[in-house]
Amino acid sequence: MSTFDIIAFDADDTLWHSERYYAQTQSEFVKLLAHYRGEEYIRAHLDEVEARNIQHFGYGVKGFALSMIESAVELTDGRVSGHDIKAIIALAKDMLNADIELLNGVSETVAQLAARHRLMVITKGDLLDQEKKLQRSGLGKYFQRVEIVSDKTRESYERLLAEHSIEPSRFFMVGNSLRSDILPIIELGGSAAYIPYEITWQHETAEPPTGQPGFHQLEHIGQLPALLAKLEEA
Hints:
This protein has helices at residues 19-33, 39-57, 61-75, 82-96, 106-114, 127-137, 154-163, 178-188, 224-233, and strands at 6-9, 119-124, 145-149, 171-175, 191-194, 215-217. The protein has 234 residues and is α/β, with parallel strands linked by helices. The longest helix is centred in the first third of the chain and has 19 residues, at 39-57.
């Protein structure tokens, strides 16, 4: 009998690259407004606007686009041109249409684990965008369940586990965000593998838990099958 009923994966920056596109778009946004303000000021202001807008727009490219437009209006005291607004919208469309690039080892690892475990995706963001990403990734066939949520909190995970009749002790989460993917699961008594990504959005930063037997940190996803095999032997 398997130790875990479900192995769940975050999507963005766990299965495929995402944050690098936000960073690239932010750089293009800075260039667009450079004749109004300094680079660091623009970046800091966009971060501030994005953080305060999460409660209104949620996570994802569309909310990011609205935050860029709002920032542009504020940074230029309302003088931003229609041409620049159109350029910002084009940046967002480029993000939505960007190729899905899987992280190294993801395709092989997910296929390997699917042969032994029931797999699930739990991701936050825009419903349409995330559904399209999963479809275009080629990974959809490996997951029995896909849950796209507005945010990842202890309460949202608790609700999902109850809906699927999964005991927290038999649930294993894999993700790149300590705040969203790891800490809520550890608090519930589940297990999780933290796999840091090359870029971490400041809103997702947190301190790793200490002295928690359910917490594991890996260098890359290719180490996951060995970890799960070891935990099942214990």
